Each structure stands twice: as structure tokens, then as C-alpha cells.
């Protein structure tokens, strides 16, 4: 069994290691492995986040448009993934601007959602 701090940090480590692999490693197989690691980190994060929800399930609407649950949950990670791909393949003036904007918005959405989802306290006994 893993210690709690290590267990809680695993999705973040997957995301960071996947992003670093995509950006800094040259072989295509390493970039694919980084993408898989990034995706597994985002899936793990979303699964844990859903398990810790304090609010009831709600349908998500943005300006009257219905958003499927998967799109709503993975949108911050899609933005972070786009910023990683821009850093890896399009690192110049406009690419840097879009990379910063996408990563800031993705981090903002993750922060806002994490404020309402905390570790569930389970009583064992």
C-alpha cells in the first residue's frame, strides 16, 4: 500500500512526466508514451475527483449549450494537453501566447473544480 502523500500525488506526477516526455524526448515512441502517461494521469485525476464530489450530479450548460459529462470533466486537461503540444511542436511567438493562455485557463478550471471536491472521509469500523 502506498503512503497517502505519494498516492495523492500520482496523477500529478503522471501529468508532469507525460508532458516532459512529449516536450523533451525526441523519439516518436517516447512522445507516444508521454501522451499515454498524460492521458492516464488525467483519467486518474477525473476518476478521483468524481469520487470526491460534494455536489450532486448536474447537467452542464454553457450559454444554453448542453455539455456531455466527459467533455466537461476532461476540458481542463484538453487545454493543458494543447499547451504541451504547442510547446513541443510550435514553440514560437504565436505558439507561446496560445500555450500560455491554454495552460492558464486549464489550471484555473482545475483549481475551481478542486475547491468543491475534497477527500471523502470514510469511517472504517
Shape: globular
N- to C-terminal distance? 19 Å
Q: What series of H and E elements makes up the topology?
A: HHEEHH
Strand content: under 5%
- Give a short account of the largest sheet: 2 strands, antiparallel
Record the strand order, biggest sheet.
1-2
Gyration radius (Cα, Å) is 16 Å
Q: By helix and strand content, what is the structural category?
A: mainly alpha
The tally of helices reads 4
What integer is the average pLDDT? 84
Identify low-pLDDT runs. Answer: none
The count of β-strands is 2
Portion of residues in helices?
over 70%
Whole-number total of structural domains: 1
Concise description?
Strand 1 and strand 2 form a beta hairpin.
Overview of the molecule:
It is built from four helices and two strands. By secondary structure, the chain is mainly alpha-helical. The protein has one domain. The chain has a two-stranded antiparallel sheet. Strand 1 and strand 2 (65-67) form a beta hairpin. The longest helix has 24 residues, at 28-51. The radius of gyration is 16 Å and the shape is globular. The two termini are 19 Å apart. The chain crosses the membrane at residues 7-25, 96-112. Keywords: Membrane, Transmembrane, Transmembrane helix.
Features:
4 helices; transmembrane; two-stranded antiparallel sheet; membrane; 125 residues; transmembrane helix; mainly alpha
Amino acid at each position: 500500500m502506498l503512503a497517502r502523500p505519494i498516492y495523492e500525488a500520482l496523477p500529478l506526477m503522471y501529468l508532469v512526466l507525460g508532458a516532459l516526455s512529449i516536450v523533451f524526448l525526441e523519439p516518436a515512441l517516447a512522445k507516444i508514451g508521454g501522451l499515454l502517461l498524460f492521458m492516464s494521469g488525467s483519467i486518474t485525476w477525473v476518476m478521483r475527483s468524481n469520487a470526491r464530489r460534494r455536489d450532486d450530479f448536474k447537467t452542464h450548460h454553457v450559454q444554453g449549450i448542453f455539455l456531455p459529462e466527459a467533455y466537461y470533466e476532461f476540458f481542463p486537461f484538453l487545454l493543458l494537453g494543447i499547451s504541451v503540444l504547442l510547446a513541443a511542436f510550435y514553440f514560437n511567438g504565436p505558439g507561446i501566447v496560445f500555450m500560455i493562455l491554454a495552460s492558464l485557463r486549464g489550471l484555473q478550471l482545475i483549481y475551481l473544480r478542486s475547491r468543491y471536491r475534497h477527500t471523502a472521509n470514510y469511517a472504517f469500523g
